[in-house]
Design goal:
With 543 residues, this protein is mostly helical. Helix content is 58%, strand content 5%. The strands form two sheets. A two-stranded antiparallel ribbon has the order 1-2. Strands 3-4 form a two-stranded antiparallel sheet. The two termini are 34 Å apart. The relative contact order is 0.11.
């Protein structure tokens, strides 16, 4: 907790300095401390994404960035801006920040932390963006811009990967600056994402900020659209936000095309990044085939697509069973899954219907546009993989619009403290949660509170691994564990190896002497298949 506090001070000061540079060049989306910080996040994320094509985001990149940011922070005396807060606001910021820091000190428990977040950050900090890395591990083809941002601060200033703690503190600064008190109610729920660099947290925060800016009359359409595209690059399931910003720019503000140029450039960079790592413009959809030679094997993508369909139904049906569903079965079985996910799905549909009816009754053009955007997003998610985590942001948006005038400062603060106590209790007693909510499977991965958290955040360490070679690829596989968050690179998960055998392929280096040049796949012969089966037999099969 104490170490994360020091990290927060360094990184927030750096981002303020970088945001000041952006302000001098192109202005900011909105004024204030949080406005500069968010401009700094946007700018450095784009710059690091470009750099990652050529170099690793190592300590030299980090130290250079921090030096520049802190130089402008002290040169322009940006620390004086914190004196704008009243005594009451300052006490609120300190109290909420301490709760955020404490919540972020617990063990990570989101499974993607071990299978996707940490491996992505390791690759980015050690090698940068790798061409065709999806051939080594399909999940790594995502390489979210948020993990690029985290990787750049992971060598020195944020070694515990608690960047989401820092973003939550920045969010509190925004809430207090803008007096948007209803957003304080959301912070306790977001504490559940503070232990990992989950992209779900920043996209929810940034989308709520953009919504608030639009609703309060911000008409800087160029920056609104560009920042909405930036949120989309962090997590493409946020497609509704750039759609909404585009509609707002055209229908309400009546902007011309030149105001969309910056956003289009960010989108092009996103497409190039995905083509480089995955082979197609948008992960994980194999649409927009440019014929690059490092794209994943079609059979492998088919297997992945089938798995995504099963995940829609929480793995409670086989792919063959799902294929036999009627149109009614598709909806009924999704709504009435066994466990808590059924309740979330039903609540999602009810929330969306309520919001649509509200927008009709409200007769407000902006609210209409939000409803249209959310419906488009819902249709796209339902078509590809209707997992509850892909539409969790909708709950925040609907609640924000419906109850924005209900929560005063006092109500919001009281609600914040009550819900925060509940969330911290939830994090502190996972065994109790597992017993009383057996369908919440994540409880078994949650660690207990430890006194050392007061000094440094808890994290798991895993070092046991085996090394193998197939063709020209030497790689490592974790021993008796399904993920590779602590395994030296290049590393492949047992899941990936098994899926490779199903497709009769295996990843290979493009240049056997240079990992940086990337990966392709090749068909394996009988001897190589025996070698791969030997590897599978010497590692633990995933449950």
């Amino acid at each position: 907790m104490i170490l994360t506090l020091f990290s927060s001070i360094i990184i927030i000061s750096t981002l303020l300095g970088l945001g000041r540079i952006v302000e001098l060049i192109s202005g900011t989306l909105f004024q204030g401390i949080s406005g500069k910080i968010i401009s700094g996040i946007f700018a450095i994320s784009i710059i690091w994404t470009i750099l990652a094509f050529f170099i690793p985001l190592n300590i030299y990149v980090e130290i250079s960035t921090i030096t520049i940011g802190l130089f402008f922070f002290f040169k322009d005396r940006l620390y004086l801006e914190f004196y704008q807060f009243t005594k009451k606001d300052t006490l609120l910021i300190i109290a909420t920040s301490l709760i955020i820091l404490f919540s972020g000190s617990y063990y990570p428990y989101i499974l993607d932390h071990f299978g996707y977040y940490v491996p992505s950050i390791k690759w980015l900090s050690e090698y940068g963006l790798i061409k065709g890395i999806s051939n080594l591990d399909l999940t790594l083809g995502q390489m979210s811009v948020w993990h690029i941002f985290q990787a750049g601060f992971s060598n020195f200033s944020d070694q515990f990967l608690r960047i989401n703690v820092i973003i939550l503190i920045v969010y509190v600064l925004y809430i207090v600056e803008k007096k948007s008190w209803i957003q304080l109610v959301f912070v306790p729920i977001m504490l559940l994402f503070s232990q990992s660099p989950s992209p779900d947290l920043p996209v929810i925060i940034f989308s709520l900020i953009i919504l608030n800016e639009v609703l309060t009359g911000n008409n800087k359409t160029s920056l609104l659209f560009a920042f909405s595209i930036f949120v989309f690059t962090i997590k493409p399931t946020m497609i509704w936000l750039p759609i909404f910003s585009l509609l707002y720019s055209i229908v309400i503000v009546k902007s011309n095309f030149k105001n969309l140029i910056l956003g289009c450039l960010v989108l092009i960079l996103f497409f190039i990044k995905n083509i480089w790592t995955f082979g197609y413009p948008v992960f994980p959809v194999p649409i927009g085939d440019l014929g690059v030679y490092w794209k994943p094997n079609p059979q492998f993508l088919k297997i992945s697509s089938q798995f995504a369909v099963q995940k829609t139904y929480d793995m409670q049906y086989s792919f063959e069973e799902i294929q036999k569903f009627s149109a009614l079965d598709y909806a009924k079985n999704w709504l009435f899954l066994n466990g808590i996910k059924s309740k979330i799905n039903i609540l999602f549909i009810l929330s969306l219907i309520t919001f649509i009816l509200f927008s009709i009754r409200k007769k407000n053009t902006v609210v209409y546009l939000i409803a249209i955007s959310l419906v488009i997003k819902t249709i796209l998610v339902l078509l590809f993989s209707a997992q509850y985590r892909f539409f969790i942001d909708v709950f925040f948006v609907v609640f924000f619009i419906l109850f924005s005038h209900y929560f005063s400062r006092q109500k919001s603060i009281i609600t914040f403290y009550i819900v925060s106590i509940s969330v911290i209790s939830f994090l502190s007693f996972p065994l109790f949660i597992g017993i009383h909510i057996p369908s919440y499977k994540m409880a078994q991965f949650m660690g207990n509170f430890e006194k050392k958290q007061i000094y440094e955040p808890s994290r798991y360490k895993y070092t046991a691994f085996n090394s193998f070679k197939v063709g020209n690829l030497k790689f490592n596989v974790s021993k008796n564990y399904p993920y590779n968050f602590g395994t030296p690179l290049p590393a492949i998960t047992p899941y990936q190896i098994i899926d490779n055998t199903k497709a009769h392929i295996f990843p290979q280096l493009i240049n056997k002497d240079k990992i940086k040049q990337g990966f392709i796949w090749k068909n394996i012969n009988t001897q190589e298949k025996k070698e791969v089966n030997h590897i599978i037999n010497n590692t633990t099969r995933p449950n």
